[in-house]
Amino acid sequence: MFIRNSLVFIVSLISFSVAAKEISPNLGKVASIQLIQQWNRDVFPDGEGLPIGRGTAIIGKAIYQQHCIACHGVEGMGSSAEELAGAEHALTDTPPDKTIGNYWPYASTLFDFINRAMHINNPGSLSADEVYAVTAYLLYLNGIIEKTSVINQKTLVAIKMPNAKGMVNIYKKEAQ
């Protein structure tokens, strides 16, 4: 019975694969192994996946000015992309401001996003030290750390974000 069910499952996968190719709009291109490896570097809220490295807001400011200011504006105040700091409205206002300081629940998630998605013209191109430094700068702009604070794989997960308890964990099992 197990072999029969396994065979049916495999045939179903193959059929789906063939059908998917037949109805494809032929957009994009197949991801290379190098691209998959570049993207396959997740960082989790508990810090799992953080690389070795370090940075400060002082160093991060120069990197931000080189790679980020065109889209995110001076001191993260927003431009063609979302504002990252300096919220004028609370999350409950209309419209709400979702900045790093009042929305993001984990500093490690900020690192993860910058690491994989920035800068926009060449995602994943920043070194671990550069990502730590930009993360530190953005945390500094939001009043979460001091300008001279050193951010690394140990200190980053110790940072308590202002909205850490403002998110709902849909995966957490509630006590019965």
Considering the chains and any ligands shown, give keywords for the structure.
two-stranded antiparallel sheet, single chain, Cytochrome Bc1 Complex, Chain D, domain 2, 176 residues
Describe this structure in words.
With 176 residues, this protein is mainly alpha-helical. It has a domain of 119 residues: Cytochrome Bc1 Complex, Chain D, domain 2 (Orthogonal Bundle). It is built from 7 helices and 2 strands. The chain has a two-stranded antiparallel ribbon with strand order 1-2. Helix 3 crosses helix 6. The longest helix has 21 residues. The two termini are 37 Å apart. The mean pLDDT is 84.
Brief sketch in words of this structure:
This protein is mainly α.
Give the secondary structure arrangement, pairings included.
Layout: H1 2-22, H2 33-39, E1 54-55, H3 57-67, H4 69-72, H5 107-117, H6 128-141, E2 151-152, H7 155-158
